[in-house]
Amino acid sequence: MEPRHIRPAVERRLGLLRVYESRAAATTTQRLRTLARDPIRAVRLWTARNPNTPPDALATLLQDEDHSVQWNALLHPRTPPEALELLARQETEEAKASRRPGLTVNREYVAHHPNTPPRLRDELIAAGVCRACPDHPCTTFRVFMRAADRSSSVQDG
Fold first, then answer.
1. What is the pLDDT of residues 42-69, one digit of tens each?
2. Does the CA dihedral 132-133-138-140 come out positive or negative?
3. What is the pTM of this model?
């Protein structure tokens, strides 16, 4: 376990200001790009949840080391197709390396993301990443939005 880094009071206050900034709808896209690389997890998390975060910043956040940040970027409707494909390929490789082929958490949501290319969606569903798709066709957007709603209610409340 890594030793916990305790930031000085001034740095904590500045970090809190950046959290507020990352949550604000008025924050510019250029600033959101900068905030996507912030060292403070909460800043990156709220940047991933900001509806105005540009696709390239979401691609960065989708590769974040923190799974909560990654998850929020995955549920964002503006996440670019290339980033979704990269995440799906990485999880496939992780599943093979760990010998856990059932590891499909991210790939299931990539398969239902509105920006997923049809070729990738078909490939993922054929690979069995969605438990519902083999039995009946999923309404992909409905499945995706249900996950986004659950994530919002858990993190907001």
1. 999 999 999 999 999 999 999 999 999 9
2. positive
3. 0.79
